[in-house]
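Box 3.1 A note on notation
Throughout this textbook, protein chains are presented in two layers. The first layer is the amino acid sequence; the second is a C-alpha cell string describing backbone geometry. Keep the layers aligned when reading.
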Amino acid sequence: MFENQTNSTEIMKKLFKYLKVFGLIIILLAGGFVLFIFATWNKTFEAAYPEIKASTDSTLIARGKYLAYGPAHCATCHVPMDKMEAVENGEQIPLSGGWTLPIPPGTFRARNLTPDKETGIGNLTDGEIARVMRHSIGHDGRPIFPFMPFQNMTDEDVTALISFLRSQEPVKNLIAPSEYTFLGKMVLATGMIKPIGPTEKAMSSIEKEASIPYGKYLAYSVANCVGYHTERDLKTGKFTGPDFAGGMIMPPDEFSGGYSFMTPNLTPDQGSGIMAQWTEAVFIQRFRNGRLIEKSPMPWGSFSRMEDVELKALYLYLASLQPVENKIEKIVFAPDEEMSNN
C-alpha cells in the first residue's frame, strides 16, 4: 500500500512537471505570436499609379460632383460628423473629412479630401489619389480597409471625381489617423486584410443608359450595393454570403441610437427577395422617398437625388439576378436585441 502511494506521488510530480513545461511552451508561443503581430502589422504595399490626370473641364467636374454627392456617396463619410445631417438634406459642403467608424478592427476616420496642402489632398498627385481608389493603397503605402468600391470604376469617372475634388475650396481640417485594435493589427500582420485591386482592366468609359451593364457597374463599382447587401465578416471585410442576398449586420453607431440593422435580400427570389415584389416605378419611388426608417444606415439622401436613368439601370440589373433564397426576418434590431437571420 505504501508502495502504491509512492508511485502515485511520483506520477503526480511527473504530471505536474509536464504541465509546467506545456504551460511554458504555450506562454512562449503566445508571446512570440504577439511579438510577431507588433513587428509585422504595419506593412506597406506597392502598385502602379494609374495614368489619371485631373481636368478643368466643367462637364467632367459636374459629373464628379454628382457622383460625390449622389451614387458614390463620398459625402456620406468625408464630412465632419456634425455635418452629416446637412449633407443628408442636400447641402453640398466641402469634403473636409471627419466621419468616424468604430468596428472590431479599429477606429477608422475619413480623410480630408479638399485641396488644402497641410491637412487635405493638396500635396498628393493625381496618381496617388487614383491609386487609393483603384488599389486601396494610401500615398504612404498603407493598406486601406475595404470601405470604397471604386477598384473597377471607369477611367472617366475616376478622372471626374478627382477633378471635382481638386475644384473644391481648400478647408484646413486635420483628421487624426485611423487607429487599429490588436485584432486589426492581427488581421493585417497575418494577411487576412490586403489591399484590394481591380478584378479586370478598367474601362475607359461606359454608356450611361438604362441597361443591365450600366446597372451592374453602378451596383459594384460606384454605389457599393454589393458591399452592404451581402453578408460579410466585419473583422476582415471578406464576403461570406451570395452577392446581393442580404444578411450583413450593421452594428450600432453614433447616429443609430443603439439600433442595429441587417440588410435585406435584393435578389428576385419570390419568397425572400425584395426585387420580386417591386416594379420599376415602385423601385424608383422608394428612392425618391428617401429615409423612411429614421436610423437606417443607408445613405438615402445621396441616393434619393440619383438620376432616373441610373435608378432604372439599377432596377434592371437587380431584377436580372439569379434568385437566392435568404429570408431576412427582421432588418431593425433594438439595443441589446439578439440579431439573427435564421
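The first strand starts at residue 100 and ends at 103. The chain has a mean pLDDT of 90.
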